[in-house]
Each structure stands twice: as C-alpha cells, then as structure tokens.
Amino acid sequence: MGKRNSQRKSAAMFDSDDDSSVTSSSTARSDLMSVSGAEDVQFVQDSLLDQALDALDEKRGSTREKALSSIIDAFNSNMQHEFVEKKFATLLHQCLASIKKGSKKASAKEIALASHAIGCLALTVGCGDNAREIFEESIRPLDESLTSRIDVSKTPSLLECLAIITFVGGNDQEETERSMDIMWRVINPKLGSNVVAVKPPASLIANVVSAWSFLLSTVSNLKLNSKNWQNSISYLSSLLDKEDRSVRIAAGEALALIFEIGVIDKFSAELDSASDTTQGSKPLESYIFLQGLKGKVINQCKNLSTEAGGKGSAKKDLNSQRNLFRDILDFFEYGYSPDISMKIGGDSLQASSWSEMMQLNFIKHFLGGGFIKHMQENEFLHEVFGFSPKRKYLNTNEHRMSGGEKRMFKSPNSFLNKARTQSLNKQRILSEGRNFGHYAVGVVDEEA
Q1: Domain-by-domain residue ranges, the chain?
Q2: pLDDT for 325 beyond 90
Q3: How far apart are CA 160 and CA 186, in angstroms?
Q4: What is the pTM of this model?
Q5: How confident is the model over 129-179, as pLDDT tens digits?
C-alpha cells in the first residue's frame, strides 16, 4: 500500500501541467541552499530522486520522460554516490526497460533520456563491478535498438550511451572493438549483416564517427586487418568531401587519430619483418595503398584549411573548420600534436594529443552542464585525464537567487516550496514526538 501511494504521489508530481510545479534538481539545489541547511538540501535531493525513480513505473510516457529528465539533472548537479549505492540496480533496469525493443511503448525522447541516464550512471560509479554490470546488461539492448533504427532521433543518445559504458566498463580491447563495430554498422552496413538501403542523414554520420573515434582513442594495440583499415580510411576520406561541415570535422579528427596511433607505421614495421617476397607482397600492397590514401587526405585537409566558405556559412563554424584542418596538416607534415588547455575553476586541465583531446571533447559534450561539477569531484575522470583539483568547490554559500527563482520558491504551487514544507513538517513531528510519542507515531502512520 505504501509503495502504491508513493508512486501515485510521484505520478502527480511529474505529470503536472504547471511548469512551476516541476523543476530541475539543479534549480532545486540552488534554491534550497539559499534558504535552508545542508541536511534539508540532501533530504529534498534524495526525495526528488526516489520519487523520480518511482515515477519510471508509471504508464504515461510523459511522466517517465519528466522523471528521467529530473534524474539526469540530479546527476549533473551533484555526485549522487549515496543514491547510486542504494538504488543502482533499480535505476539501471528501469532505464533498460525504456530502451528494450518490445517493452513499454517508449517514445524516441524517452529512449534518448534513458540512454543518457545510463551513461551518467556509468560515469558516476567509475571503474568496478557496477560499471561492469552496466556494460554487460546494456550492450545487447543497445545493439538491438541501434539495429532496429526505427527513429533516427533516438540514435545519437544510444551511440553516446554505448560509447560511455564501453569506455568505463569494458574490460578489454575485444569488447571495445565489438562496440565500435556496432557503431560502424549504423552508417556503413556493408561491414555487417544489417544492410539498409536508406541513406543516413549527415547528423547521424557525424554522431557515429565521433562516438567511434572516442572508443578508438582508447585502443592501444591495433589488429592489423589491412582490408578493414583501408575501407575505414577510404570511407572517412570520402566524408571530407561532404557538404555538411560537422561530418567533415568529425572525419578529419578520426583520420588524425588513426594516423596518430600509427596505422601506417605498423604496416611498415610488418613489411620490414617479412622474410621473403611472397610473405611481404600483401603488406607491401597495403602499405602502398595506405600511403596513397594519406597523400589524398593531406590534399583534402589543405583545401579545407583554406576554404572560402559558401552562402550562409557561419563564420564561427568556418573558422573552427579552418583551424582544425590546419592543426591536422601540422600533425601530418611535422608531427605536431594539438595542445589545448581548459580552466576548471582555478585549475588547468590540459590535453596534448588527438586521443586526449577527443576524449575530453566527447565527455564534455556528453555531460553538458554537468561537466565542470564532474571534473571537480569525479575521481574516475580525475584518473582518466590525470587531473587533480587543488581544492574542493563548494558553492553552497555563493549562489544568489534571481528574481525568477525567488518567485518560483515563494509560489505556494512550487514543488520546492512543498518539498521544503514537507521536510519541516516531518522535523516538527519528530521533535514533538519526543514529548508526545504516541501522537507523533500516529501522524506519521497516517501520512504514510
């Protein structure tokens, strides 16, 4: 009975048509920190997450979507270690239920939100048994959903989720390569059994190439399958001629990464180790072909680094493209790797290779507004990027409410106001219970 009551309350909260009654947990945190103590804030945050988790059982899709959005906001605004420790498995399987084909009639939006929530969960738990469970439980549903390709709008989040869970929970290179193959088949079905005649849109191609490159950046020992690498490089080279700028940029970064990890150098070493002409003929052909491809790519990069732009071309985007391909040219011709620096609070986070830069950019894009918080407090990301913040960043006393936030908090219909009132009432009841124990217990039982 208690669980059903809890779910009804959750449904009412996340189903409300009044926008003022539903707010992100980041806003909740800011408002409450301005008017209440840390214990109240933690109580309301835990309550929000518990209610959102209960709401994932509701039949109405919009209710589940709002609940997932609330969960994602909570993971972005704080490291939810305590919640994850208690509710890790429940959250994972509720999100997977939204993704699995043939389960609830989930919308593309719900599938995208559930995928993103799983990725946030993986980054929060870091390496370990929980990350491993996320990977093992999620890989097949993600593969099946990507293969079905019912709605292209859900695919980017599925790809990002697959990339993140493999990055965190994959144990070896074979598992990474399996995930990369799943991604590749989405836009290049010739390499798999899922042959689809529909031409993928440019945005999907860019998303696949970025996710594929992100995982490639983690591979240390490449398998020298010359045909696969020739196909991959040829395909990426063809993308440099596409009209869509995001596709060209993603392909350029992928090619720079491929040459940084030494594909041609490895074929050259294999050629040098061949003991006779017969054994060396195939490596020699592959080496010559790859050298020819590299020459073609260099010429394409030269053209893209000086592109004049076209009608309606955004100047900022054009400059980004030019700068990127100048960097790629410097790398191809002189061996210079990119060197970028990013401020995280008062500390500097640096990347000095294509691999590091692409990992940093991918995770920054995935976390969005939660990137700074995670880089400050997420020990897994500290380990990945060799980043050690000099101090903790506690902003509990630094936030000033805007006029809109004050109105939202003061509104009698505000969920935050209701949650805070509920918290204070429970504290009052508990306090009174010290003197009137039987009365307090009766009130609590009645509320439950």
Answers
A1: 222-336, 406-447
A2: yes
A3: 13
A4: 0.77
A5: 999 999 999 999 999 988 875 577 889 999 999 999 999 999 888 899 999
